[in-house]
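Thread: "does anyone have the structure for this chain?"

Original post by V.I.:
We have the sequence but no experimental structure in hand. Need at least a predicted one for the grant figures.
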Amino acid sequence: MQEIPKISAEQRKALNRLKRARGQLNAVIDSIEKGGECVDVIHQLAAVTSALNKAGYTIVAAAMKNCVLSDDPTTTPEELEKAFSALA
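Reply from O.Q.:
Generated one for you, tokens below.
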């Protein structure tokens, strides 16, 4: 049996945001498939975008704390900066 890795509070927070975004994206898809109102679809899409952005920022913040500031960093500041810039 495969052991489930333990995740940090920051990772849990990001994972919850991503799951929420997945649910919102499913709602957007369903709305489009059912001929939903354009304005409603746009609002749902904005919610998905916001959830994904917040998850991304949470992941970057955790990386800053865990990957770069640790005694044995696994990510360079330059790599983190490049990843953070990709969110913009």
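V.I.: this helps a lot. The chain is about 75% helix and 0% strand.
O.Q.: and The helical segments are 9-33, 38-68, 77-86.
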